[in-house]
Every structure is written in C-alpha cells, then in structure tokens.
C-alpha cells in the first residue's frame, strides 16, 4: 500500500468527488432509463414517455462517457491502484456496451438481453466504487456480506430479464437490485483500495 503522504499518492479533491458523483448520477439515469424503455416498450399509452426516456438515456450515456474519460485523465494520479483498475474497467465496459447493441441484430438476442442490463448494473457498481474512492475516509464493514449483496443484485437483474414483469414491478426490482448492489459495494470497499 502506498504511503498517503508520498508525492505519487495524493488525496482526491473536491473536483474528483464531484465528477464521481456526477458520473454515478448519470449511470443511475442510464440504468433506469433503459429499464423503463424495456418494461414500457409496446405500451401504446406510454409511447411518448418511452421516447423521452430513450432521449434522456442517450444524452446521459454520452455525458457519462465524457465525464468518466475526464476522470480517467485528470484523476489517474490521485487514485490508488485498485481504483485505477476499477476506472479502467468502467471505461472499457462503457465502450463495450456502446457497441453491444449496435453489433447484434436484435434487442431480443440473448447477448443483448442479458449483456445490457447486467453491464449497466456493473457500471453502477464500479461508479459507486469510484465515489467511495474519491470520498473522505470510509472503512470496511464486511467484504463477504458485501460480495453476497453484489451477487444478489446481479441475480435480481438476471431474473428480471427472464421474468420480464410489468412496468411497476420491473422498476421496483430494478431499484431494489441497484440499492442492494450499492450497499454491497459499500460493504466490500476498503479504504486502502
């Protein structure tokens, strides 16, 4: 573990914290926008709302990619090695998800059906890790329980893809899975990471 006082490791500043929070908030918009589109698609009464959600989803995704690229460039020197790995993984996953839908012929394709929602949830978890990494000292409660909660969040999203409930139930499960994932990452996070 690097010495916090050494010149190569500095404390993340308010700008990096703000960028981390902005990236996380944008990811929440992307994930819930995608969930809304998935569960409301085909409902004639919600066509206008689906169009707004699709527009919001795309704008938030584009801005997220720009913000996280800025965090990668400007925050690289102040993040610890594990958080750099998380950041690099987040950037790579965001790029992969950008092309996933374009390269597969149909949103019904299993790779898209599972890849997009699970990849989106992974981005949220990685985004929350970066918020924690840029925040003042945070301890670790239980990495085992944290890992179990993260796995539970992913299992719930995978079940959603198979189950495909109505709009209200689908969004409720999406919200619960996201909250469980964030709680799991918080418990698994260790300040030295």
SSE inventory with pairings:
Blueprint: H1 14-40, H2 47-75, H3 81-103, H4 110-133, H5 143-163, H6 167-188
Helix pairs in contact: 1-2, 1-4, 1-6, 2-3, 3-4, 4-5, 4-6, 5-6
Describe the structure.
The radius of gyration is 17 Å and the shape is globular. It has helices at 14-40, 47-75, 81-103, 110-133, 143-163, 167-188. The protein contains 6 helices and no strands. By secondary structure, it is an all-alpha fold. Helix 2 runs antiparallel to helix 3. Helices cover 76% and strands 0% of the residues.
Keyphrases for this structure?
193 residues, mainly alpha, 76% helix, 0% strand, globular
- Got a strand count? 0
Determine the number of helices (DSSP H or I, runs of at least 4 residues). 6
**Unreliable stretches, pLDDT < 50, 5 or more residues?**
1-9
N-to-C SSE string, H for helix and E for strand? HHHHHH
Q: State the major sheet.
A: none
Whole-number tally of structural domains: 1
Proportion of strand residues: under 5%
Distance between the termini: 9 Å
Radius of gyration: 17 Å
